[in-house]
Automatic annotation (TrEMBL):
Transmembrane segments: none
UniProt keyword annotation of Oxidoreductase present: yes
Pathway field: Metabolic intermediate metabolism; (R)-mevalonate degradation; (S)-3-hydroxy-3-methylglutaryl-CoA from (R)-mevalonate: step 1/1
Record-listed E.C. numbers: 1.1.1.88
Entry protein name: 3-hydroxy-3-methylglutaryl coenzyme A reductase
InterPro entries listed in its UniProt record: HMG_CoA_Rdtase, HMG_CoA_Rdtase_bac-typ, HMG_CoA_Rdtase_cat_sf, HMG_CoA_Rdtase_NAD(P)-bd_sf, HMG_CoA_Rdtase_sub-bd_dom_sf
Entry keywords, A to Z: NAD, Oxidoreductase
Annotated Pfam families: HMG-CoA_red
Catalytic activity field: (R)-mevalonate + 2 NAD(+) + CoA = (3S)-3-hydroxy-3-methylglutaryl-CoA + 2 NADH + 2 H(+)
Lineage of the organism: Bacteria, Pseudomonadati, Bacteroidota, Flavobacteriia, Flavobacteriales
Family the entry assigns: Belongs to the HMG-CoA reductase family.
Gene Ontology molecular functions: hydroxymethylglutaryl-CoA reductase (NADH) activity; hydroxymethylglutaryl-CoA reductase (NADPH) activity
Top EC group: oxidoreductase
């Protein structure tokens, strides 16, 4: 099909956008109009609110919003909201929470909460001369120039923690950074950090232009390339862990406690040394993390990018979780770098996000960091528990069964038949189809 580019798409009404899409790309099929409209909220104000979250919106995209109960975290009981479309994620997290609830639950520690941003610039100047200029002039000016921007954040206990000059000329000619660390308290802080960094860029230009430390040729070589926060926040770190005596590590799969602990630790070690396994292993961790991140209105793309960069911080991609067995004690933990907020952005706008945060007891940003790390650890525990005992497919496919039956147009009575049929069998796509055809043929 040949399509024509469109001018002024963003200026069309919502209906105008839909009409154009259906006409240009969907052969005028009115069924697609109906699909989009059935997901509009009947409350016009609520629908308008959702449409203004992003650009060129024509409908809402629904995801299941589920609850994983029985999470004992630092002595408090939580029910975690999880927005996720993948079968077995909520079930696995819930099962892991129940497993650990009578063993002391999950313990968390905030290791640090610094966030980072950089002004990237090119400057053809001797590094020692620039370092002297930074130490005795620029650093102070950067703080002064951002005082108005940081005032409210400083009143809440946050602000700019430090500013450093980083020499990267060995990796790229004349490349330097102003590297700043921030405490954004309960906000994710992206807009705050970027506003500070953009002022850094302006102040850098102004101070260099009026300085007597540099020649005119050196001054003209300055280029501020960009001012932007980093989503890699290795110093915004939380630890979540579980531990118990091996004799208390009872599993219902039939294997001994000792064998379960040994195989579990082997599985984690494999993910620590084998990138192919580590990738899937960490994807499972992020199943748990992202589901709660989305439910609480935070940025799951930033969460993903940071976690995977951290997993590869020594040059090889490795597991985010770790396991030890010492003196009869089984210990399983995660160190997760994660930057989230509980104020600003969607947290004050999206009704379900408000619900999620209320459900979690209106946590601080650090409290939410702890909850997210626990969710990831629980999901990973559930997946590894299945892998080293019954296998992943038994539980996953049982959760996936309804998806298969819905695709086949099964009635409620037929769905109930299949739940009973697979009560003591492992679900497979082939077996579902075979039994479905047999049932329909009767």
């Amino acid at each position: 099909m040949d399509h024509k580019p469109v001018e002024g798409f963003s200026k069309l009404t919502k209906q105008g956008k839909i009409d154009w899409l259906v006409s240009e790309y969907l052969e005028g099929n009115e069924e697609y109009q109906n699909i989009l409209k059935q997901y509009w909220n009947e409350n016009a104000d609520l629908q308008k609110l959702h449409e203004e979250f992003s650009e060129n919106t024509i409908s809402n995209f629904y995801m299941p919003y589920g609850i994983a109960p029985n999470f004992l975290i630092d002595g408090k009981l939580f029910a975690l909201p999880m927005a996720v479309e993948e079968s077995s994620v909520v079930a696995a997290a819930s099962k892991a929470a129940k497993f650990w609830i009578d063993k002391g639950g999950f313990k968390t520690t905030i290791i640090n909460n610094e966030k980072l941003g950089h002004t990237h610039f090119i400057f053809n100047v001797e590094s020692h001369k620039l370092q002297h200029f930074f130490n005795f002039n620029l650093k102070k000016k950067l703080y002064e120039a951002t005082e108005a921007i940081t005032a409210n954040m400083r009143n809440r206990g946050g602000g700019i923690l430090d500013i450093k000059l980083v020499d990267k000329t060995s990796e790229m000619p004349n490349y330097y950074q102003l590297k700043a660390s921030f405490d954004t308290v309960d906000s994710m802080g992206a807009n705050f950090i970027n506003s500070c960094l953009e002022q850094f860029g302006k102040t850098l230009k102004q101070e260099v232009a009026t300085s007597e430390d540099f020649t005119q040729e050196e001054k003209s070589s300055l280029q501020v390339v960009m001012n932007i926060l980093s989503n890699f926040t290795p110093d915004c770190l939380v630890r979540a862990e579980v531990s118990c005596k091996i004799e208390d590590l009872k599993d219902d799969s039939g294997i001994s406690n000792e064998e379960f602990a040994r195989k579990f630790k082997q599985a984690v070690t494999i993910a620590e040394i084998e990138p192919f396994r580590a990738t899937t292993h960490n994807k499972g961790v992020m199943n748990g993390v992202d589901a709660v991140v989305i439910a609480t209105g935070n940025d799951f793309r930033a969460t993903e990018a940071c976690a995977h960069a951290y997993a590869a911080r020594d040059g090889q991609y490795r597991s985010l979780t770790h396991c030890t067995i010492d003196n009869g004690i089984f210990r399983f933990w995660i160190d997760l770098p994660i930057s989230v907020g509980v104020v600003g952005g969607l947290t004050n706008l999206h009704p379900l996000v408000k619900f999620s945060l209320a459900l979690l007891g209106k946590p601080s940003a650090q409290g939410l960091m702890s909850i997210l790390a626990v969710s990831g650890l629980a999901q990973n525990f559930g997946a590894l528990r299945s892998l080293v005992t019954t296998g992943i497919q038994k539980g996953h496919m049982k959760m996936h069964l309804l998806n298969i039956l819905n695709q086949m147009g099964a009635t409620e009575a037929e769905k109930q038949h299949f739940v009973t049929y697979f009560k003591d069998k492992t679900v497979s796509h082939h077996e579902v189809i075979h039994e479905f055809n047999r049932l329909r043929a009767q």
